[in-house]
Amino acid sequence: MDYIELLKDVDYFSFIIAIAKWMFIFLVISIMVLVIGTKLKLFKRRTKVAKVLVKLYYILIPLYFMLFAIKYAPIKNSQIEINKVIDENKEIATEFVHDFVGAVASEALLTQETSAKDLVNSYLDTYVYKADSLPQPEDLNIGKRFIYKIKREIEFNYLIVVTESKIIKEAVNLVGIDEQTGKDLYRTDFKNLFSEGEIVDIFKKQLNRTYRSIYKSMFILFLIGLLIPGIEIVLARIYKY
């Protein structure tokens, strides 16, 4: 994908607005935390030193929330902007994934513009049952026709599993997408992928999954940071200082 072309359409001014917006949101959240903590008397201390030190929470907690917002805002906004740009440049995204599909699926699959199941059926019809010496299904009696049906079903199911495994395995190895996305790609009719832009939705789905994993890591680290005042509050309750 020509990322440079996509990045040209990103609204970089929106990052300034996003940082301001999220800083304000997290500031409000931090104030709410302080208000609730005060009402619950979580910041009440007995000793003189503890009373002075606990007042630092009213500065450090909002500062901590706002610093997190500065890190969170550009990542969140980049997700929004990239999704927007992908929607506006579907051709670039589709061409990129077309090359990807060409690497993980057979050339015949793309040429025939069929799904993987149609590819298997085409192979069986063309290469397995086309020989003139073989009797055609309509020429067989009921018993042999039943055996023919079972045989073809076994062959079909086997080739489908092989094809599915190959596409998913190669998809994961070549571009690092997860197995679920590989399955989504396999189950989508390839003709519709390009004519209806479904491949772009799959691409965005994987992109957003990546962002969700980033958010998860960020919030885990954020909550770990909040353990420091949390532990101090617990200790204050236990030792009553």
Please provide a written account of the structure.
By secondary structure, the protein is mostly helical. It has a domain of 121 residues. Helices cover 81% and strands 0% of the residues. Helix 5 crosses helix 8, helix 7 packs across helix 8 and helix 8 crosses helix 9. The termini are far apart. About 3% of the residues have low confidence.
Question: How big a fraction of the residues is strand?
Answer: under 5%
Helix content: over 70%
How far is the N terminus from the C terminus?
61 Å
Order of helices and strands: HHHHHHHHHHH
Note the main sheet.
Answer: none
Helix vs. strand class: mainly alpha
Annotation, overall tally of beta strands: 0
Mean pLDDT: 76
Q: From the alpha-carbon coordinates, what is the Rg to the nearest angstrom?
A: 29 Å
Principal-axis shape equals: elongated
Summed up, the helix count is: 11
Which parts are unreliable, with pLDDT below 50 for 5 consecutive residues or more?
106-113
